[in-house]
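Teaching assistant's notes for section 4

Start the section by putting this record on the projector. Ask students to predict, before seeing the second block, whether Transposase, mutator type will look compact or extended. Collect guesses on the board.
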Amino acid sequence: ALLGEDARGLSANVVSRLKAQWADEHRRWSQRDLSACRYVYWWADGIHTGLRSDHSDGQCLLVIIGVTPEGRKERVAIGDGYRESKASWRDLLLELKAHGLQAGPRLGIGDGAMGFWAALDEVFPDAAHQR
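Reveal the predicted structure now:
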């Protein structure tokens, strides 16, 4: 564990190296080739952390989990966005296309945040909706 009592002994240097390693892993993952990926459905949601800084009001984490035709769950996308806006979701979906994703899911599953649904209709218009 990296928190609480178990975090003793972690120097600033170790934390900096871990942070750099995690950033590099995330960069490689987010730039992976998606041309062979297919998804039956996606769960999509925006996670609001409540963390605040000078320019983060309304900032949230956009997450898409997909299920393949074989029934395997995969992280499809993780990105930051502004208040689950259509523009934020659209940018994330277009990034998936830019990395080779040929088609969206047959079904998108999410809450009532309208930004995701509007972006899904624009970028992957054949996907059905379930709220």
